[in-house]
Design goal:
The complex is a heterodimer of chains A (276) and B (288). Chain A has 276 residues and is mostly helical. Chain A contains twelve helices and no strands. Chain B is an all-alpha fold and 288 residues long. Chain B is 71% helix and 2% strand. Chain B contains 14 helices and two strands; from the N terminus they run H-H-E-E-H-H-H-H-H-H-H-H-H-H-H-H. At the A-B interface, helix 1, helix 3, helix 4, helix 5 and helix 6 of A face helix 1, helix 2, helix 5, helix 6 and helix 8 of B. Chain B: Belongs to the binding-protein-dependent transport system permease family.
Amino acid sequence: MNRRLSRWSIEAIAVLASVVIFWVPLYFVILTAMKDPQEASLMNLDWPSSFQLWSNIKEVVAARDYMLLRAFWNSSLMTVLSLVLMIVFCSMAAFVMQRRNDKATPWISFFVLSGLIIPPSIVPTIWVLDELNLFKTLTGIVLVEVALGMPFCVLLYRGFMATIPREIDEAAVVDGYGGYRLFFTIIFPLLKPVTATVVVTQAVFIFNDFTNPLYFFPGSKNATVQLTLYNFTSQFVSQWNLLFTDILLITIPPLLLFIFFNKRLVAGMTSGSVKG
Amino acid sequence: MSKIFKRIYTYQFLLPAAIVYLVIFVVPTGLSFFFSLTRWTLSDWELIGFDNFVTFFKEPSLSIGFRNTFIFAAVTCLAKVAGGLLLGVFLTSKIRSRNYLRSIVFFPTLVSTIAVGIVFSMMMHPTTGLLNTTLAWLGFEGPDWLGDTRIALLSVAFVDVWRGIGFATVIYIAGILAIPAEYSEALQIDGGNAWNKFWSIIVPLSRPATNSVIILSFIGGLRSFDLIWAMTRGGPGFATDVIASIIYKQYQGGFYGLATAGNVILFIFVTALVFPLSRYLNRTEVDL
């Protein structure tokens, strides 16, 4: 009886702590986003005297000539295009890397793994993009996201590829399939579970990415949603309510992914990090 | 491998990925070693030897970055290992609120780092912030979390742990669930209690998870930029400047050669710390 009571009280404390540690900041954001500038500047948890959420949203969206709408468009486009390229390129690469076993294989693995550790060199990357006329372009930032996300995705795909039996390849070859037809009509559809994992995890990463757009996609026309936060901090210096409305709006897409794909997100982020 | 399979698994499949990876990542990394030795304006460069590196080590406002980067990475890494392990054990035990707690702990991982930084720098405001008004209500006087040079770096590190502990926790949960049940059954027969179980089963046998958490959070800590930049911009003074934020400042100032030297230093710093660490961790790992 005593043990059950102590277990129950530990659990109650944990739930209470989770409310203080995680819900209070969220509640604070929502509350501040509903306030007027004066009340927001008090930075407290008092209930707003009048609800301004809708007018705050309108004001944030219209700020700087509808920068936020452009930013949502840019971020969505950047995320979707990067995902498409990443899925096609990485699954193809992982197919050959897992199936082949010759002298070059360890070297390729080494190159891919070092991409997980080495920080990208900023200015030389800008210089290369500039030489290719891709600096400050959507194509440029998409290629950067693809290149930097590649090691993680290739490892995910390669790990899963090992569970697809080679007998399938052999049977297809007997039926006269070539490499491309084998990959795109048989293997790629079997990779659907990893592809889903890649989509969910990388969508969050790329949508939330701040550093790469900051360096490689500058200019007010190019803003992404994370950069609007950064730009608005200087503009809305006395209007915390608007800044927090922006935070609320740009948190909605990852929040939706979290609600619908919680299990897959967790599985995707942990797979590969715990050796099987 | 037979000839026919060499043709089936053609290296052509590697081509698109290899081109993007080489052009956007490998080539700039190689070039950085050269450009770090120059005074560089993007259109023009002049070789100046190791001057940029000398500046980096001599100038106190730049060399403080080494110390801060290391402290930040070490502190956040240790806190995530300890906190992740404890939460992992707690969230794999038989409690009713398990699923709720797992989700809520993981949630901050998915929120934009810049947003987290802005919200917390407001909550850490010295006079009106939530943290200090709560402390005042309890009868304590809270410090100036982000304005005091002695604790600013630790305050940012705390927020980084808040944001990243969910990730460490889910890795530990996966690691702990992978421990075969026979071990705890054997312990039960021998009459061991929960304390014994923690120290002689969970800690040693979740080593793969520990290694992953250490390596991933240490690399993340050494490279981190966005949270620090959103919260303090390296200030007050240079108290929270890490190598990555110094690179950004030099880049903004147009000192491209110096910024690239910073990148090379970060590259060497990260590899010099991470490779020995991961080799050591792998060597001391026990097999299940």
